[in-house]
Write a structure and sequence with these properties.
This protein is of the alpha+beta class and about 190 residues long. The chain has helices at about 1-20, 30-45, 65-70, and strands spanning about 45-55, 75-85, 90-100, 105-115, 115-120, 125-135, 145-155, 160-165, 175-185. This is Phospholipid:lipid A palmitoyltransferase.
Length: about 190
């Protein structure tokens, strides 16, 4: 429950940006740029509904007994604000919750940068990075921890499919997960 409150506080801070009309130029050097970016995405961005999907656990990383215990239907959802630049690249802020491998809630709050390449018509493919805070009950007792993950996407507006790879933390029965979820723009 502590992790939920911590991430909720982060979300409240994120939501307060437009109300406070953040004076980013008053922040410490370096943080003013990040503040301006967050403010721009939040105030000028489009809305997206995030729909959680599937978590494939690499079969070579887990014992058969452990695989039998794991949840791969990562149901859940969330909200995203994203801005599309003139070159087609996107930046977004997101918050979502889904059922992790043990069917416990996993909270995610972060930023994503996604360059896109047009493939055919309105169909685009992207490859970028995502960073933020994650809270899971089985890691650090639910205390939020930072992550940076590679991302790929397939976009045919208003729908985007995202996929990331969550590496192993060493040993067996953890990590090596391919996680897929979607966004519906509204």
């Amino acid at each position: 429950m502590k992790s939920f409150r911590t991430l909720l506080a982060g979300l409240a801070l994120l939501l307060s940006i437009p109300a406070a009309q953040a004076a980013c130029e008053d922040w410490w050097a370096g943080f003013d740029t990040a503040c301006s970016k967050v403010s721009q995405i939040w105030n000028q961005g489009n809305n997206g509904l995030l729909v959680s999907g599937y978590a494939y656990h690499a079969r070579w990383q887990y014992t058969p007994e452990k695989l039998a215990e794991l949840n791969e239907f990562a149901y859940g959802g969330g909200f995203e604000k994203h801005i599309t630049h003139e070159n087609g690249n996107e930046e977004s802020l997101f918050f979502f919750v889904f059922a992790d491998s043990h069917e416990d809630p996993q909270f995610n709050l972060g930023y994503m940068w996604m360059p896109y390449w047009k493939v055919a018509g309105d169909f685009q493919l992207g490859a970028g990075l995502s960073g933020g805070l994650v809270s899971r009950t089985d890691i650090f007792n639910g205390i939020p921890f930072p992550v940076i993950l590679p991302m790929v996407s397939a976009k045919f507006s208003p729908i985007t499919l995202y996929t990331t790879y969550i590496p192993s933390l060493g040993g067996v029965n953890n990590g090596s997960v391919i996680y897929t979820y979607g966004r519906i723009e509204f």
